[in-house]
Structure formats: structure tokens, C-alpha cells
Design goal:
With 365 residues, the chain is α/β, with parallel strands linked by helices. It has 12 helices and 13 strands. Strand 11 and strand 12 form a beta hairpin.
Amino acid sequence: MTEAPMHELLDGWTAPQAAADPDAYLRAILEWHFSPATGSPFWLERAPRLGFDPIADVKELGDLRRFPDLSDELRTVRAEDLVPTGAHGTPFEVFESGGTTGAPKRVVDGLSRGRNVDWVGRVLSEHGFPEEGNWLHVGPSGPHVVGRTIKHLAASRGGLCFTVDFDPRWVKKLLAQGRTELAAEYREYLLDQVELIVDSQDIRVLFITPPVLESLCSRASLYERVAQRLEGLMWAGTSVSPETLWQIENTFFPNASVAAIYGNTIMGIAPQRPRLDDDTQPCVFVPFFPQSVVEVIDAEGAPVAYGERGRVLMHLLARDMFLPNVLERDTAIRLAPAPGGTTDGLADIAPFQDGTGTKVIEGVY
């Protein structure tokens, strides 16, 4: 009996199975993306110029550093060229990054991010999130992937998902121009829409960004109606101080399970793992390894020690898209894996400061 081609294993591999042998998973990903029968035009066209054979020469995760960072090309590349030839027939969607550092980058996805989100759902169960009930998503929808993510989580738990959409790029532009009064007015407009929903609907889980959540808690009547029934609160998008997080968990929403997610359009989602008694950081995020491989590095590109801060370097190793060696605009503290785990944790996510004095606008997402 002949062994199935490596790329065929990708269809049935879940993250825990792949994590047991990440190098075998990597080889399957490379064979898929660089074989003429299955690879995307994006990588097949660039492969001869790499200076090495990805299938023959890249044996382990450390070898991914040999690839150039091509993420800037995602700003202008034809989205069709990103779709693997072997995946034709699978419906694909296009998502964009936040566009904080220029024109947005585009990625494509068919099935891979759904697997990531299914795993996030299992982590939320460990946090004590309700297994049923309606969700309210107060955040971006298209072209950002988070909107689909929250709808997927709600549907997987048998709940309906209500949405209040906003445009984070617009708010960041307002803040960058110093038009804070208009940005504040926009937040109030969002809360007006939230109020219309919670007045008549039974919302048990809320996804929201910290600045909008802060405004919600300041609107007393709205806060009381939300807090009365809320069983799960998920936040993401901007950093939160430990003091503010303590207030959210213990003062404003003591009866709800609270968890955060960290991620971006390229990497996917790294949920907060359940807190341990000896954790020194209130939120420790764990990537969807090995589909999302995240390193924390110093200025020379070497991994920082546990407990130290560094720049986030990520590698996307998905069946739907391969994008290695992407230096992100975030910094994080690298933490050792939790007992029984094998994947490093990330904590205290913050924008990267390039030393030029340029102000980084986190905005509302």
C-alpha cells in the first residue's frame, strides 16, 4: 500500500495532530504550495527566484527564515493569484488588513481560518463561555475577517449573531488628524445602535473593542441592561492596562466570563488561554500552532528569552495560504508554554515604536 501524498494529509489534519509533528506538517504545506499541480500562481512564479528549493531544502520550522518577507506584495497582487490551484472548487473569500501602515494587505481563505475559529471555540469553553445564547458583535465586518469569526463562533454554539458594524480605518484617520470630537461622536453613534439591539434582544455574549466598551460602561442605562444578562465578554483590538482589565472583570462584568483574542488578518487568531494561578501577566495568548507559527525576536532577529519583550515575527502555514517570515508591527513578551503545552505564549501586546517619534494610532480596533 503506497503512502498518500503529503499534501493529502492536510485535509484531515487538525492542529493537535499537526503539532505532534510540526516538521512533517511543514513539509506537507511546502509540497502543496510549491508543486505545479496544487500551488498558487503567486508562489510558483516566485519560486525560481528564491535561490533554494522550498520542497527539498526547507526541512524544519527554523528554515522558514530563508524566505523573504513578501507581505508588502499583498497590497497589490491579484487576489486570484493567491488561491492554490489544488483548491479550485473550494469557495474562497478575500479579507484585508487594517491598513495602518499604508494600503491594506489582502489574503484569501477557504477552510483554514474556520479550523482556527473552531479551536478558539474550544478554548472559550475552557474559559466558561456559554454554550448557547445570542451574540452581539460590535466591531468591523468586511473587509476584516473578525466579523466572520464572531458569526462562526455564534453559529457553532447555536446562537444568533447581531452586528453593529464600524469602520476602524475611518476612526484611525480621525484620530490621526486630531479630530477627537468627531471620533467620540462616532462612538456614541455606535452605542445608539447597540442600545436598539439590547432593548429587544436577549444578548448573552458580547464582542467589543476596549475604547467602545469603556464608552458603553459610561452610559449607565445601557451598561445595566447589557451587564444584567451577559455571560461572556470577548474583547480585542487595542491594548488594555492590567488595572482596566481588573475593573472590567471584577467591577463591571463580574458575572461574565471574560477573554481576549489577539491576532491579525495574516496570522489568524491567538486566543487568551485560561489564567493560571502563577501567571504574572493577566492575558497570555497562544497561537494556532503550527498553522500560525509566531516568534518573538530582538533587533538582530534572534529569539528573545522568556519574559523579555521583542518584535513579533509570524509564519502562516495554512492549506489556503502560505506566507512566511512576516515582521509584524506589534511587540510582545515571550512566555514559556503552560504546563503540558508546547507552544510559547504571548503577552502585553503593544505597537512597535520605530524610534522616529511617529505616533502609533491604535484607534478602536
